[in-house]
Amino acid sequence: MDEEAELREHLEHLAGLHNSLPPGHPDQPAILNKLGQSMRRLHDFTHDTALLNHAVDVHRVAMQQAAPDQRLPYQLNLANALLDRHDAGPADPAALEEALRLLRSAEPVAHTYPGGATAVATTTANAHDRRWDRTGHVDDLTTSITYLRKAATLSVRDDPDRTAWQYGLLADGIIQLYTRTADARHLADAARAAQTGLSHAPPGHPSRGSVLISLCRIREKEYERDGTLARLAEAESCAAEACALESASRGTDRGDFFNTWANVLRTWFAATRDPALLDKALSAQRSAAEATPPGHMNRAAVLANLATTHRLHLETTGDTTHLTAAVALFRTAIAAAPGSRAAAGFRFGLGVLLTVHRDLLGGAAALDEAERELRQAAEALATTDAERFRCVNALAVALASRYEDGKAPADHRAAAAMFEEAARIAPHHHEAVRARGGLAYVHRLHALHTLRPDDLVTAEAAYRDALALPRIPGVIARTLVTGLADVLEVTGDLVVPPTGPLSVEAHAVYREVAELRAAGARAPENTLPTRIRAAHGWGLAASRCGDPVQATTAYRLAFDLVPRLAPQHLSRADRERHLSALEGLGSDAAACALADGDRLAAVEFLEFGRGLLLSESLGLRAEIGLLDTHAPRLGELFLRLRDELGDRTRDPAAGPFGPDSAGPPFDAPQRADAELASYREAAAEMDDVLERLRRVPGLERFLLPPDVRRLVREIPGPVVVLNAGHHRCDALVVHAGTVEALPLPGLTSGTVRAQLNRLQTATRAAVGAAPAERDRAESEVTDVLDWLWHTVTAPVLRDLVRRGFVPAASPRDPGRRPRLWWCPTGPFSGLPLHASGARDAVRDHVLGAASVLELVVSSYTPTLTALHRARGSALPRSPRVLAVGLRDTPGLTRLAAAAHEVRAVREWAPGASELSDRDATRAAVLSGIGGHDWFHFAGHAQQDPAADDNGALMCHDHLEAGPLTMSDIAGHRAGAPSFLAYLSACETGRGRAALADQALHLAGALQSAGFAHVVASFWPVHSSTSLRVARHFYGAMGTVDVTHETTARALDRAVRAARDHRPDRPSWWTPFHHLGP
């Protein structure tokens, strides 16, 4: 018979015994007492609140029937039953207050019973602890501690066997007070209590485990205060010893021990980022679950804690199986909760999880469930309950997230109402500030969506109201300032006159935006991405105000921060997320410099702001390598600080109002501000280290922008740098040691992006379409090429002709056309500049030509530095050539032309290595890239411009081993010199729209891997055209010595041949382009 069945049988026996006694029998109180206790035990299994209500009634009758001089035990049992009822259902303040009255009336006579004073003090402490939990009033917590201290002192005399346990309870209570106040004296007091308890619990003592767990928690708090890892080691040792005991200590259970052990391991993980500690924590929590069977009052809490560790594992490793586990565990914990109030905490955890990870959990459906769970959690808590704030605020965040995703006005209104309620019920001032900031946040979302002046005014007022509050924690103030700047920036854009100077109103708005952004940019406690974005905004606002000096100061600050941004130990995907802070920065800084007439500064800004991942691979590692030989100690300190600052992917100032801020209540603003202070100190130390490093001979330009004057002198030319700024576009022509600027009137990054989107839509539509639709798509491609010719490339070429850099008419011999390099930025990066030409083929009267192909041999480069470095490479006399051909790739369409391309490569290089079909595995291709000077790939590629790692080659075993990604390629032999990579696959030169300036595509990855030349395509290529281009390319290469010049001209010849074959299908031949010297 199981325990629940035994309890039910025992209840029936007691009820029968009670009914058999005549009224007034002296045994009735004792039997009723046992009956009430059994009902409470049965409730632990059934969670039936009716049982608890009945138990309270039974205990009350028992107390009333007991003789006055014998009532103390009955008062204590009734008080405990009332506390159980308070815990089980919606918070019942009346039950709690009745329990406290009973305990106060029992206190004067408690000493007349053996152990009575200790029992009353312990129970009174528990009651005040529950009231503290409900109201958050610290007076209740200090009162609870006073009674716990009294109970511990009394137990030395009255119940020595329980002394260790009582001191453990006292230590736990004082820990709560320390958590609330951050007063180091309380932490030391807790440590003394735990040590006293341990002195009364030698090995083998029944309370040793519980005291060890208390000491474990204290050591964990000590670590959090001073950062000494040895304290965590001692904490983990205490927990491990407690968990090794065969049975639990008095008043506790082994599940609680394992749970605490897991918590320490999680803290240790946070300090070291060692994933093995998370795995160990999961193991400990699984043991906690095994030691806490179904029906146990703590089982739900154990499962919820296990869910939290799975969430942490997910956020660390990206393994979504942990997300599935966490959701399932939270749902199970809710079902197992011993009452609606306990379930509220688990509903909160589930709601936050669903909100933060909604993109992985079904989007709108996840947010709908989050709203239901969080609403039920809030409704289960009394309006005076301190925990209600957390649930209401999290509900507001979920609603705001749903509004952000779906833009339903009802969600905006509901979120605003919830933030307003959260502000009203917040138990602490900093939480009220947080809620007011949340209100401003959701109004900002709405205003930036509608762009209605009234909504912008509402959002601005909400931010100003929040900022006017007293004692705003720094962590929240930073976010409020940033949000206000966002709103004002849009407001300024709306009041800018279409022509002429700024109005007084617009000038005032931009001036305030500049001041707000400057504050964020200069705040060393902000993360590097946050500071760079703020400096970018500062520069834009100052430019709008007509203050180029201030704008240049802003941009130079941004670029001073850039080298610290993407530490090498982070994954490439993480570094890409960091680098999103740079998008558009170089272009806007260059536009500002050009407006001020400083062409060299414009080149410097563009060079430093573009292709940072590429420059890391090709040059930055060499610069970092100098530290070992020139300043090893300072270098070690620099790398430590760089990693520490770069690890901060989430700004503490960015958290209070976003989706992942719904989590633990902002109950420790001191801790958040301490984190800001710590980051500020590390940033200041980094500034000092960089200054000292640059005083070391040989490191004078360490992590500074390249010497642009020298670069311009040494670069081959002409190179046309196309800059797409927010408010203007320009061409910078670098040639013969000079930089000339050509404004491109009427163009902005927005207008260029619109044409890019038009081109991408057309090229997608041209693939596999019906004839009429395909013809329309090809006509669209031709229109974009015509627009590009008349708006961009022809004006640039006319300027080159005027300066004598390019002949005035196309030569009779196409082989005599000069070289020209295009260095596009922003949306220009996705346009086939080399293929642009007039739709009607009418020759330009200055150029004597109707297309770029008639005048120059075009190549591309992501940066001038990359071009300069690549010129130092050369193909060995006996090159190692690898040809990969995938005619049949599982799960993808057959590419019959792939084998023919491999044949073309081998005809040019008979000794070439070959990997075809089954032999072309992921491992074999990756190894081949690393071991050859020349790499030709004919097969499928995958591009997802929205993904972090958005380019991949599809090898034969891609379904099992996964695709061969950009990260794999760029990291395999980064910077090792090779000559050429030919990618005959789809979209290998198309990068991420959000990081257009970082060469984040397969072609860029192969440049990172050290290939000087790359042949790539902007969009999906027609297989027959791919084969035609490859044959012409290798045919041209077979008649000449392989050099930089002949490589570029061979592809140019191949593209021209493909154009001549199908001039009516521009989407077939225009995507092929050459990157390199």
Features:
single chain; about 1100 residues; alpha/beta; Serine Threonine Protein Phosphatase 5, Tetratricopeptide repeat; 5 domains; six-stranded mixed beta sheet; 43 helices; about 65% helix; elongated; CHAT domain-containing protein; CHAT_dom
User: What is the CA-based Rg, rounded?
Assistant: 36 Å
CATH architect. name of the largest domain = Alpha Horseshoe
| N-end to C-end Cα span | 84 Å
Enumerate how many helices there are, as a single number.
43
Please describe what this structure looks like.
This protein has five domains: 1-113; 115-244, Serine Threonine Protein Phosphatase 5, Tetratricopeptide repeat, CATH 1.25.40; 428-676 and 684-693, Serine Threonine Protein Phosphatase 5, Tetratricopeptide repeat (Alpha Horseshoe), CATH 1.25.40; 715-860; 866-1075, Rossmann fold (3-Layer(aba) Sandwich), CATH 3.40.50. By secondary structure, the chain is an alpha/beta fold. It has 43 helices and 14 strands. A six-stranded mixed beta sheet has the order 7-6-8-12-13-14, with helices on both faces. It has a five-stranded mixed beta sheet with strand order 3-2-1-4-5, sandwiched between helices. The chain is elongated.
